Amino acid sequence: VFIAQSRASGSHRDVEDEELTRIFVMIPKSYTEEDLREKFKMYGDIEYCSIIKNKTTGESKGLGYVRYLKPSQAARAIEECDRSYRAILAEPKNKSSESFEHDYYSNNTRQEPRGNTLPFCGQPEFCSFEKNESRIQESVSKRLSVVSQLPFIQEQLFALFDLVPGLEYCDVQRDPHTNSGYAVIQYSTAASAIYAKYKLHGFEYPPGNRLTVIFLEDGSDSSE
Length: 224
Prior knowledge:
It holds the Pfam family RRM_1. InterPro entries: Nucleotide-bd_a/b_plait_sf, RBD_domain_sf, RBM45_RRM2, RBM45_RRM3, RRM_dom, SLIRP/GR-RBP-like. Helices cover 24% and strands 22% of the residues. It is α+β, with helices and mostly antiparallel strands. The radius of gyration is 18 Å and the shape is globular. The strands form two sheets. A four-stranded antiparallel sheet has the order 2-3-1-4. Strands 6-7-5-8 form a four-stranded antiparallel sheet, covered by helices on one side.
């Protein structure tokens, strides 16, 4: 498992406490916190488990958090747990959902608060976008172009973009005349592609090699 620290992150202690030990998982709505702990305790010492619930009905949203004592334990859980859990590193706990989703959509996009969750909800589409949302400046699609100064390794790039649910294919292309990397990524929904671009554009992989991620035309109606 490869874990990179954002240049915008704070001290090592803050990063370790808030970004590298807490994972976000999709779970059956029937799960209790005890069930969640039982499924993930094999990967390390758990500090706490929590299930995200509807504030009005108290019903589980099918999402949860698992906080480990060590980053290596969280990394092992992400790597080894069943793929159906779609485990990823969670956003820092001190970063409110309103703040995160505010950044995600842009400064002028309205978004309904969802509680302390990442911007997807366990459904085929993670989030709903206004059909006539004209404030998104670029044309979005389900397909992404990824460019870097270094060549890609198919398996590693696939694993990186597969952290966002809905990956359909990852096609790494090589230019024999240059040492640069180019790949085409496609997701099952535009919401997945938007989230992947938001999280991975400018990401340094490997360290010092910044990825450029842009939308590619996929023939669909971008107004959706």
